[in-house]
Design goal:
The complex is a heterodimer of chains A (259) and B (65). By secondary structure, chain A is α/β, with parallel strands linked by helices. Chain A is 37% helix and 16% strand. Chain B is built from one helix and five strands, in the order ββαβββ. Chain B has a five-stranded mixed beta sheet, with no helix packed on it. In chain B, a hairpin with a 2-residue loop joins strand 3 and strand 4. Classes of the chains: A alpha/beta (259), B mainly beta (65). At the A-B interface, strand 4 and helix 3 of A face strand 3 and strand 5 of B. Strand 4 of chain A pairs antiparallel with strand 5 of chain B.
């Protein structure tokens, strides 16, 4: 497909965005990302292990910033301040690359986005020149506010992170889509290929996922399945589905029958 | 003098950030450094002289969603 999406100043070739967490090793990570066809790949920023095996392979050796659009996240940050610091470190780490995935997660078992801290961090980051793709709840009002702040993409959850439950509130996602001009990308909650297709059929610009691929029995095959699911859902959305009817409607002509 | 690096206290001789990173085999690797809450650009590693009480965060990229 030649279809692309525009996120801020970035033109993306794939509507599937993938994470790099939870894989067995870096080799499997690299092969799954390759099979997914994604060009936006998320990563986390963590303290370097001091004085231990300096030759340990680095994620950036496998996921080259020359080939992929890296999307550093703020996972693990529970306050706006920590999220902003993490983004600034990521920008330095990636030589000035300013695209970030802002997520400020609550400490509860839901891992639900803390939208109060998220709004604060988003304002600071946008003012500091970052292009912010923001993870948020499926609240249509918060989504609008994040767009107004200047985020380049709004990414409501489909279901809690890592749950694999699929889109739990397609009506809210639809409402967000109806109101926003920036790309809406479902982030989190996808479990299998059909979940990704449902999000795309609603009209989402893309889907970001990690666990659905990494925790599949065969991550490489699931990455391929997700690639097709995203393309399929997008094509169906563009094609425009037939209306639902309450009763049957014969596919073959009901005239000219033999008697 | 005492500094804190990634949450661990450490005693070091006065030196530049570049020399400290060299002793840890980190110079030239894909890392980013924050000193007392501010980013230290790579281009300034050789100019920054570490001071007693400095708090450093040294980070790298790892897998994440």
């Amino acid at each position: 497909m030649t279809d692309t999406i525009q996120v801020g100043s970035y033109t993306l070739k794939s509507r599937l965005l993938v994470g790099t967490g939870k894989y067995r090793d870096l080799d499997e990570t690299g092969r799954a990302i390759e099979a997914s066809g994604a060009d936006v790949v998320t990563m986390a920023v963590r303290r370097t292990n001091l004085g231990q095996n300096p030759n340990e392979p680095n994620l950036l050796d496998v996921i080259s910033p020359d080939r992929y659009t890296l999307l550093p996240n703020t996972a693990g940050c529970h306050t706006a301040d920590d999220a902003v610091r993490t983004c600034r470190l990521a920008r330095e780490l990636l030589d000035g690359h300013n695209l970030v995935k802002l997520e400020v997660i609550s400490k509860s078992r839901t891992l639900y986005p803390d939208v109060v801290e998220t709004l604060t961090a988003a304002r600071t980051l946008v003012a500091d020149g970052f292009e912010v793709m923001v993870y948020t709840s499926d609240d249509p009002l918060i989504a609008l506010e994040l767009e107004a702040i200047g985020c380049v993409a709004v990414m409501p959850l489909g279901a809690p992170i890592g749950s694999g439950l699929g889109l739990q509130n397609p009506y809210n996602i639809r409402e967000i889509l109806d109101n926003l001009k920036v790309p809406v990308i479902v982030d989190a909650g996808v479990g299998t290929a059909s979940d990704a297709t449902v999000a795309m059929e609603l009209g989402c610009e893309g889907v970001l996922m990690n666990t659905a691929i990494a925790e599949a029995k065969d991550p490489i095959k699931m990455a391929h399945a997700m690639r097709l699911a995203i393309e399929s859902g997008r094509l169906a959305y563009e094609a425009g589905r037939m209306p639902r009817k309450r009763y049957a409607d014969a596919s073959s002509p009901e005239t000219g029958l033999i008697e | 003098m005492q500094i804190s690096v990634n949450g661990e206290a450490e005693s070091i001789e006065p030196q530049t950030l570049e020399s400290y990173l060299t002793t840890k085999s980190l110079l030239g690797r894909r890392i980013a450094v924050e000193r007392n809450g501010d980013i230290v650009p790579k281009s300034q590693f050789s100019e920054v002289i570490l001071e007693d009480g400095d708090v450093l965060e040294i980070v790298h990229a790892i897998g994440g969603g």
